[in-house]
Amino acid sequence: MRSDWQYPNLWAGCVGAWCPSQVSGGNRLMDLSGRNNHGTLTNMDPMSDWVNSGGVRALDFDGSNDGVLVPSNASLDLNGAFTVCCWLLFRGSGTQVAFSRFPNSGFSAFWLGTSSGNFVATVNSGSAQIAGAATTGVWVHLAATRGTTNLVTPFLNGVPGSTATVSGAVNAGSVGIGRFGDGAFHWNGLVDDARIYNRALTPQEIRILASRRGAAYQTRRIARGFVADIGGMVGSKKLNELAATGTLASKYAATNGLTLNQLLSADVSVFN
């Protein structure tokens, strides 16, 4: 784990992280969690299906036969609490799957996507939990958490939807991005920043992930701007040694979506 992550807690319990906007392209989609659960592009062009959207890259799925397949691995097994989430842009209609784990026995361990005009999350073939109305052509963040009481909560752009109690392990089958793991219900649209955790993220953590694509990869480089604002002072000093008053620091932190503690804990030497 890098020492300069802005939100290091977003890496705790992460067992899979596939983020096209953070990698270089090609036939493989690298797992950035450190668990080496790398994916292989299937029926996709390693050049043209990596597209720019919103200023960063994403993977483009055609809704026909495209997909990324991640082989089943014990590190992806979820026997208790967990979180699954991704950024997606929907172009299609009906039931489509953006992110899933699907065993060969014929039931879904989990899937995120669309059904009956809604963005939904489904766990262990339970009823689809509605996160919110599906929209086309815009990026949204879709997530689902399950806590220690087996309560599954879907989130759309950080806002919780309808809940249900669903028990059972999620520990079999391949992970599919842009499709079910077994190759059905292909996604027509874009996907970025798909993640699996072996814990239930807090609502605040979900909101951070939903604040921007690739939020978990954000570093404390924002501190550079603060140093410039207070006179261009750089070096190995802590920012709270450079700020003579808390007023300027507080204002800068609020403007950039940080707490004062987050800003003042940044070591300027990290950024030079």
Q: What is the CATH architecture assignment of the largest domain?
A: Sandwich
Percentage beta strand? 25-35%
Q: Largest sheet at a glance?
A: 9 strands, antiparallel
What's the CATH first level of the largest domain?
Mainly Beta
Distance between the termini: 19 Å
Q: Mind explaining what this structure looks like?
A:
With 272 residues, this protein is mostly beta strands. Helix content is 12%, strand content 33%. The chain contains five helices and 17 strands. Strands 1, 4, 5, 7, 12, 13, 14, 15 and 17 form a nine-stranded antiparallel β-sheet that branches. An eight-stranded antiparallel β-sheet has the order 2-3-6-16-8-9-10-11, with no helix packed on it.
Task: Tag the structure with descriptive keywords.
272 residues; 5 helices; globular; single chain; 8-stranded antiparallel sheet; 9-stranded antiparallel sheet; disordered C terminus; mainly beta; Jelly Rolls; 2 domains
Question: How would you summarize this macromolecular structure in one to three sentences?
Answer:
The protein has 272 residues and is mainly beta.
